[in-house]
C-alpha cells in the first residue's frame, strides 16, 4: 500500500532506476502498480494536483480462455488473452467516414478505465487514507464531432480526455479554484455569475446527484418507483448510481481539460489574438461509462462481454452528438438532450437573448455562428457561456435474470436492452433514432448473428449515410456496443419504407447539381 503524499514526498520515498519506481519491501504485485504511475512520471501524472494519480487507462482487456480455470488465470496473467478494444468486432463496432467533407473531423475513443474502489477513492479525497490497487474497471466509449482547426480539438479529446478523467483528483476547493480561473482568464458575465453562485452551483449539479435534477428526459418529473428488489430481497436504488465524488470528477476533469488543453490557458502569457490562432476550433463530445452494478464484480475487465447482472450506464453530453439505446422491443431511446441554440433550457442557462439569432435557413445560432451552446474549445465563445460543462445522466440496464418479473418494469427501459449506439450529427441529421435502430436490427435479422456483428452493422450504417447524403453531407461516425440481449428483438422493421424512400430519392436526384 502507498501512503498519500505530496510530489516531493513521492520522489523521496521512491528510487528511480530506469523507468521503474522501487520501494524497499514493496511486494511484486504492488511494484507493478507503481510502474503504471511511473509511465507518465510523477509530475505529469499529478498535473499539479499534489497527490497520486487516481487511476490509469488501457486500450485492451484481459479475457479468460474457456479452458483455463479462473483461479489459475488470476494467479498468472500470461494465461489470459489480451484483446484490443478496437479489434473486438463481436462486441464493439465502430466506423467513420468523411462523406462529402474535405476532412474527417469526427473521432472516437474506446478505453478501459482502471480506478480505485469507491471507498478508497473517498479516503483519498479526504486526504486521510491509503490507496491500493486500481480494482474497479469502467468501460468508456466516447465520440467527438470537431469543427474548425481541421479536427485539432476532437483529436486532442480522443487521445487524452480519458486519461484526464482518471488522473483527476478533484475536491470542492479545487473546483472553486478552477471556476475562479475561468472568471479571471476567460472573463465575461456568465463566468462571473457562476463563480459568485459557486456554492449553489455545487449543490445543484454535484452534491444533489441522488435527486436526479439533471434528469430532464422525464418531463413529468416522475421516473417511476425508486427502489427495486431482486429475488433475494436486496434493495437496488436505481436513482443513486452516482456518488458526489464521481460526479465531481467528471465536472472537474472536463472543465480543466477544456481550459488548459483545448483553449491553451496552460500558456498564460499569450495575447488573445495569438491564442485564437494557435488554439483554433472546437468539438462536441458524448461519452458512456459502463460498469457492473455490483462493484465487487468490476475486478473482471471482461464484465461487459457476457454480463449476467445489472449494469450502471453513465452518460455525459456536451453538444449535439447523440447516444441511442435500443430496448428489448427494438424501440430506440435517446439517452441525452442535445445542446442546440434552439433549446429553451440552454437559453435559460445563458440568459442572454441577444446571443441568439436566426440564419437564412431559419436555424437558431449562438453568437451568430455556433449551432451548439456547449463544446470543448471554441475559445471565441467561452466568455459568453459556450461551456464544456457536461450534462450527466445515469441509468440501470442489463440482464434481469436476478429480478422478479414484477420488478422489471421499474427499470427505466425494462431491462434486457440490446445495444447502445453513439453517433455524430452526420448520422442523426439524415435519419431518426428509430430509423437507426431499425437499420441495425433489420440487418442482423437479414444476415444472421454470425455475419452481422456490431462491426458489420456499424459499417452498414455509414454505407447508408454515404448512399443518401448529398454533396453537403457532414462527417458520419457510428460506434455500437453490444448489450446482453443482442439479437433478441422482434422481427419487425418499423421504418423500412421511410429508409427505402430516402434511398430512392437519393438515387433519382443529381447530387452534383446546384
UniProtKB/TrEMBL annotation:
InterPro entries: PP2C, PPM-type-like_dom_sf, PPM-type_phosphatase-like_dom
A single GO molecular function term of this UniProt record: protein serine/threonine phosphatase activity
PROSITE patterns, A to Z: PPM_2
Domain PPM-type phosphatase: 91-483
Protein name: PPM-type phosphatase domain-containing protein
Organism: Torulaspora globosa
Taxonomic lineage: Eukaryota, Fungi, Dikarya, Ascomycota, Saccharomycotina
